[in-house]
Design goal:
Elements lengths: L11 H9 L1 H8 L38 E4 L5 E5 L14 H11 L11 H14 L9 H14 L3 H8 L3 H17 L2 H11 L9 H9 L8 H10 L12 H18 L4 H8 L22 H13 L7 H10 L3 E4 L3 H13 L8 E7 L6 E6 L29 E2 L5 H10 L8 E3 L2 E5 L4 E2 L3 E2 L4 E5 L7 E3 L1 H7 L2 H11 L1 H10 L22 E2 L1 H12 L3 E3 L4 E5 L5 E2 L6 E3 L3 H17 L13 E6 L5 E8 L2 E8 L9 E5 L2 E5 L6 H13 L130
Parallel strand pairs: 1-3
Antiparallel strand pairs: 1-2, 3-15, 4-5, 4-20, 6-13, 7-12, 8-11, 9-10, 14-17, 15-16, 18-19, 19-20, 21-22
């Protein structure tokens, strides 16, 4: 009677195998290798082991590599990524007919023998000896499983793969030793389950579940007899019997399996006959792996998430540990991506900038207060085919995460950061500066940390138009993007404090380094990523608290165990009152300033345009209380080109600017992402205004409409950003009102700002340009600084102005 067992202990066959000794084993393994049975082969031959008992008994079974799934914030699949396409399933989710098919063709006595089937070995030995080679194999399913484990362990290392599959006596004996060990530890059902999950079935499919999906677009639980027979037949040679490329061979092999099933009683003769009459019945599902398969053009976000797992120490102390984690797979990564926001961002990025345009667009959105990245899209498609305009360059992020080498110059979008630094130093928003359209600044007056002068010489800074001369306060200068005002303001604050504020808001160079202490920084002459700018502006939206961007909410492994994930770090960068004031001033930009084309009409919103010298980079960064979005448009290939007389998205632009292209893109992305979301309002404050030449502070309706546009050169070569960053606004003339401290010039020879409230009804006088006074506030101020350099008003938060 057959020796049946389900696991545990050595069977009689195993004991007999061990008792027969090495000489019998040496002969036995010849049944499974391409060597004739001739001559006296001892175990001391090359590629063998001298003693069966010398083989280490510890047999490690690695976790099987599986697919990683990347999900959006609602649990929808964004993409799968895998080293090997495999989904491990329990035996109960594999149709019994599939189990019977694999046993029938590969090891029909599987349930009757132990690790070695001596009856099959002797039969194979006899046949192979007669034919002088391998005509029949004698390996059991357990031995095959051990071999597949060795291959799985080898991974991509071709030398180890060759070693795992080498046809030597020593390798076969080693497999047998471990097969005995496996039979001691696992039941027959467990061995079969492991075998079906590890085996390669061709067409990049590992394991029976992936194979069923690949060839028949169904689960392994739903396989029919003719389908199970086909898959079982592939195991012997997945390439030779590939039903996609060699259907005739596949049919013959399938029918051999069916006949064997009839012979062993695994299937009735009637069912086998009916199955043999059927065609292959393939319904191929093509392999879909990697971020190129991502939905809603989220390939760049998918790749960003993958890079986080491969680089963040929370997922492993070493680079190799993180690589092994991703390669092993089975991870389910729940991300922060909002499907609604991503769809809107993708439509916005591709709607006005086409994938084959000479320039590209990037859109990225961050949630204030959480740092969650809600969308990441760009006009170029994700992929490797340059003929299809595809790229792997993620324009939204830093270089270390797959972005450009340095980032992009941000232009005037940096000016609100200067304003925040100034108010933190106690300078009132009502502080004014009077200048011609072009002003010369002494480099020695720019102070870096340690109160040291930046350099010597002078720097000529100009506004966009010759008409942009006169007197501005902070609100008007932000609205009209006046270069000379913010250079003067930054000079008084000091480069050290400006850069420190930028750092608090998470602003760093695209290379990952801190923002540099250079005068050009004041005009946005630093290369920064869109994600960094979106997160920085989210600081304003969240009333002064910066939260570092995050993309992952939860990760579970193949066993459902939760893994640690990177957390956002939220820290206060400025007072609530300063942030509220910036919000109030930047509302003016979208209401009647350079960003009017971007303004939303159904909720509070604020933002800032930015266009660099030569219009090589155009930006709009803006936000509502619950969403911050950065949009960049520029050349992503080679040396940046000037965007003059250019067709983008089918539309001709005489000159591209922040308000005329990035602004409308921003509006589309924001409108779609915020649809159905609660309408929230900024905390309103009364921001003091000064007597300026333009009493109504009328904007110019977009900085692309200005006449007499110039293409200035670089008058000072030591400054990395030429002074022609887009600014503008203001025509000069008399003004009224009071309440201002004067940052430059005098009013009729009398210094303004000596008393709270300033001079009432005073006309701005004098034609001298560029004269500066001390960066003084009101004498009665306090809270943010001492008298003469810090308050805005005796009452109010932080010594500032009174909130409404």
């Amino acid at each position: 009677m057959p020796n049946k067992r389900s696991g545990g202990g050595l069977s009689g066959t195993q004991q007999a195998a061990k008792f027969l000794g090495v000489s019998v084993l040496a002969g036995a393994v010849l049944a499974g290798i391409a060597l004739p049975v001739a001559g006296g082969l001892g175990l001391a031959a090359k590629g063998t082991v001298e003693s069966f008992d010398e083989i280490p008994i510890d047999f490690k079974r690695p976790p099987l590599s599986q697919k990683n799934q990347i999900l959006d914030s609602e649990g929808n699949l964004i993409a799968t990524d895998y080293y090997r396409d495999r989904t491990v399933v329990p035996l109960k989710k594999i149709n019994p007919i599939m189990r019977k098919a694999i046993v029938a063709i590969e090891d029909s006595r599987f349930y009757e023998h132990g690790a070695i089937d001596l009856k099959s070995v002797m039969r194979a030995l006899n046949k192979n000896a007669q034919e002088g080679g391998v005509a029949e194999g004698g390996s059991t399913l357990t031995q095959q499983y051990v071999k597949n484990v060795f291959v799985e362990q080898a991974g991509d290392d071709q030398e180890k793969v060759a070693e795992a599959t080498q046809q030597t006596i020593g390798r076969k004996i080693q497999e047998l030793k471990y097969a005995i060990r496996i039979e001691e530890e696992l039941s027959k059902e467990q061995i079969l389950e492991n075998y079906l999950n590890i085996t390669f079935f061709g067409q990049q499919a590992y394991g029976i579940e992936a194979a069923a999906r690949r060839y028949f677009s169904k689960n392994a639980a739903d396989l029919e007899l003719h389908e199970a027979a086909l898959l079982a037949g592939l195991v012997q040679s997945p390439t030779y019997y590939d039903p996609v490329n060699y259907p005739d061979r596949a049919v013959k092999r399938r029918n051999i399996v069916l006949n064997r099933m009839a012979e062993t009683g695994a299937a009735s003769k009637e069912d086998v006959a009916a199955a043999k009459r059927k065609d292959l019945g393939l319904e191929i599902s093509k392999p879909r792996s990697g971020c190129i398969t991502a939905t809603d053009k989220a390939g760049f976000f998918c790749d960003y998430v993958r890079k986080i797992i491969l680089t963040d120490p929370v997922f492993g102390k070493t680079e190799q540990e993180r690589k092994d984690l991703w390669k092993r797979g089975g991870l389910t990564v729940r991300t922060t991506l909002s499907p609604k926001a991503q769809k809107a961002a993708a439509e916005a990025a591709t709607g006005k900038v086409y994938e084959d345009d000479p320039v590209a667009a990037s859109v990225v959105q961050v949630e204030p207060g959480t740092g969650k990245i809600l969308s990441m899209a760009q006009s170029r498609p994700y992929g490797l085919d340059q003929n299809e305009n595809q790229t792997l360059l993620n324009l939204a992020v830093d270089n270390a995460m797959g972005g450009s080498t340095h980032g992009f110059q941000v232009g005037s979008t940096f000016k609100p950061i200067i304003a925040a630094a100034a108010m933190a130093d106690g300078i009132s928003p009502a502080s004014t500066y009077r200048s011609d359209w072009k002003t010369s600044f002494s480099l020695g007056d720019f102070k870096v940390c340690g109160n040291k002068p930046y350099g010597s010489g002078s720097w000529d800074v100009q506004n966009e138009l010759e008409s942009e001369k006169g007197t501005w306060d902070m609100t008007g200068a932000l609205s009209k993007s006046i270069n000379t005002y913010f250079v003067d303001l930054g000079q008084k604050v000091g480069l050290c404090d400006v850069v420190e504020m930028a750092g608090k808001m998470g602003v760093r160079l695209g290379s990952g380094k801190p923002v540099e202490q250079k005068p050009a920084t004041l005009l946005g002459g630093q290369n920064i990523s869109p994600l960094s700018m979106a997160a920085a502006y989210a600081t304003f939206a969240d009333r002064g608290t910066y939260c570092s961007p995050v993309a992952i909410e939860k990760v579970t492994d193949a066993d459902g165990k939760k893994l640690s994930v990177p957390k956002t770090k939220c820290e206060r960068a400025m007072s609530e009152h300063i942030a509220d004031s910036i919000n109030k001033m930047l509302k003016g930009v979208v209401e009647d300033g350079t960003g009017t084309r971007a303004g939303l009409t159904d909720r509070d919103n604020a933002g800032k345009t930015g266009t660099t010298d030569g219009r090589k980079d155009a930006w709009f960064v803006g936000y509502t209380p619950n969403l911050s979005t950065a949009v960049w448009v520029g050349d992503d290939i080679g040396d940046p080109q000037e965007m003059y007389d250019i067709t983008i998205g089918g539309q001709f632009y005489a000159k591209v600017c922040g308000g005329c292209l990035p602004g409308p893109i921003w509006k589309t992305a924001m409108t779609g992402a915020l649809q159905g979301e609660p309408v929230e309002s900024f905390n309103d404050v009364q921001v003091p205004r000064a007597a300026t030449d333009d009493k109504k502070d009328r904007g110019r309706g977009g900085d692309d409409d200005k006449p007499g546009d110039r293409r200035p050169g670089n008058p000072f070569p030591d400054i990395t950003l030429p002074p022609g960053v887009i600014g503008g606004g203001g025509n000069g003339g008399p003004g009224g009102g009071g309440g201002a401290s004067t940052m430059g010039g005098t009013t009729d020879g009398t210094t303004v700002g000596t008393t709270v409230g300033g001079v009432t009804g005073g006309d701005t006088g004098g034609e001298s340009v560029g004269a500066t006074s001390t960066a003084g506030g009101w004498d009665a101020g306090g809270g943010n600084g001492t008298n003469g350099n810090g308050g805005w008003q005796t009452s109010g938060q932080d010594g500032g102005w009174t909130p409404r």
